[in-house]
Task: structure prediction
Amino acid sequence: MKPVKVGLLGLGTVGTGVVRIVEGHQEDLQSQVGSPIVIEKILVQNKAKSRSISIDSSKLTEDPWEIISNPDIDVIVEVMGGIGSTKEYIMEALSRGKHVVTANKDLMALHGPEILAKAQEHGCDVYYEASVAGGIPIIRTLVEGFSSDRITKIMGIVNGTTNYILSKMSLEGASYDDVLKEAQELGYAESDPTSDVEGLDAARKMTILSTLGFRAKVALDDVSVQGMSKVTKDDILYAKRLGYEVKLLGIAERQDDQFSISVQPTMVKKSHPIASVNGVYNAVYVYGEAVGETMFYGPGAGELPTATSIVSDLVAVVKNLKLGVNGKQSVLTYKEKKLKSDEQISSKYFLLLHVDDRAGVLAQITQIFAEYEVSLESVLQQPNPNNPDAEIIVITHDANKAAIQKVLQKFESLDVIRKVKSVYRVEG
Amino acid sequence: MKPVKVGLLGLGTVGTGVVRIVEGHQEDLQSQVGSPIVIEKILVQNKAKSRSISIDSSKLTEDPWEIISNPDIDVIVEVMGGIGSTKEYIMEALSRGKHVVTANKDLMALHGPEILAKAQEHGCDVYYEASVAGGIPIIRTLVEGFSSDRITKIMGIVNGTTNYILSKMSLEGASYDDVLKEAQELGYAESDPTSDVEGLDAARKMTILSTLGFRAKVALDDVSVQGMSKVTKDDILYAKRLGYEVKLLGIAERQDDQFSISVQPTMVKKSHPIASVNGVYNAVYVYGEAVGETMFYGPGAGELPTATSIVSDLVAVVKNLKLGVNGKQSVLTYKEKKLKSDEQISSKYFLLLHVDDRAGVLAQITQIFAEYEVSLESVLQQPNPNNPDAEIIVITHDANKAAIQKVLQKFESLDVIRKVKSVYRVEG
Result:
């Protein structure tokens, strides 16, 4: 019954949650792993700062090496975020035989392979369930639950901030700027929201999910990224009228062992289970060749949901410790990474065009689609209530990305088209 | 690279799926576990029967002992169903040191503790992910994903047949009898549908889920069961009008370490994520003290979805074999089982009453609710279009089950009430 000693790097929102759960659920944790789990030392920026939980001040330190080089500490829980020195601390801890649990998506998306290799070398565990979709145990699901299946599609609402904004725009007909401001006041969006609204945060999470789902070393650069800051309330109105919701989706697809991974605002048919995921909630839809359609839904962030994932990882590490199998269950990325070209990436598209309101315009436009072999599912022309021009709405059948890009290029030189107002990928 | 040898008990729908996945995904499976997985022998009822897959006939046997007493076989995969001799085979296999993967909910719900104890005794694994909710890895989620949390509520649509029937009744306004007949023709319902429609199948699955979620030895008898064969299309119409869907829900709740587990047709608010789970799909909603609301959605049955769960379990067993840790990771049920009395079980209720259409009736009825301290959220009285009497619809606030039963008893002796048409638990 020797206690397992944990060093906690960071005591912000999530770190506080970790302390709460380890202390509050201590009896349950002990019953499961067979020995006490003790948070031995906590790295903070300022020991003197007042905090929302009472912590023995002798446990706090401002010196990371008091934790990393402490031979009594078995496991490091990293919730300080960032990349530079955080990576250094983790690499050092691993080389000293300490196991690591981290919630750091940036680090795992950018340096995952290097960190996992170091862990292998030293027989250490690295668990990172909390790095994607907060409280949803999606990494376990991909790695263990679907180990026997071939996953062909992962679609995720993996950023709560942008889902809050888009849901609110959809439910209330509000504008992006107004909802963003409100989200910032509520603490759902950062004062600089770039990483969320431009899709970078989602891209990091999709890097992690597609690496695990496809068993191939996907890199952040492999993800094609488009943010949602240009989505207008009119776009959402059109989408709803046609039976769609606009969601910022991460989409990873596999076909014949070739992959494509992207993040973009997407029109999702209302009947699709992911279309009704609203607010700050996250959801990951997984399609497997054998299992078919599945979806996993839950809180994407927050003190306790994220801490739940971290402490569940901690339980796994401690169980491995008892069984003497740390570092022996890492996920192998045995598949060669082959990315699809734009010619091979296929999906449906929605286009909203503002055009001159005169004879023959629709013929010219449909002619260009035909030229690039893009066939159309539905076309609607109507007067634009706010302008003297007309609106044309097109939903294509499955078309390759390169062809759509060529169509859009051609549209630029077509003087009857005043503006290509919106272009969205369509799912469901 | 010595191959791991599997004995398959049963070659019906799911057994065929297991063969397909093990053969079709062999390369992926080998990459993960480091050695071939071979299906060595298959128990069938009739070797001569023609089958939808081609199998070397020397692998088939009609004698279970050719598998159970075969020293070369490492793992038994049981997909024959049933309890009597199936249990005997599994117990024998365990006592000979063979690990077991099973999809048998009846067996695990009734004899789980005995089987798991035998496995412990002989250092064997028993995995049974496929026994609940087919392709959804819900057992892993409860046991590992939420190991650090205290789960307080599990609500499941865990029977696809009844969800198909209720969804169809809701979408098409059809009657129970008509949809049941159609479901039988489509193969979604058995010719004797009792076990599904009377909630017994769901009760077995809730026994398994609540044992794992609450870490206590819940028995099938602890589940209070009410079927859905009496749900009428009118009930569903009323529910929809009030913003609810009727679902056959398994509900397991924990409060102050006291449990209640039940299966019953329930009115679920449309905004609740589980309300929009339709057709043969299953979903399990899990509420944890720390994580909050989560939901896991996917196919509840079918050849390949169920086989995915089985072969993923097989992968776990083989990984344990390689690490030498079989039988060392069983879930401990360390919590004492304390069941709530009817006085302690609380929920909202919907009641539809047919009453005499005369003065003072509503006063008499509301007086009885008041007498048993059941407070009302909403009350609607309206003429009954088909009868000379009137209808009263009541939705209560949270009320204890015993009080509602007393109210209903009192209603029986009240001559202004012609009939208590429907009573439903309400969620969301």
Q: What stands out?
A: Residues 346-427 of chain A form a domain with the Alpha-Beta Plaits fold (CATH 3.30.70.260). The longest helix of chain A spans residues 303-323.
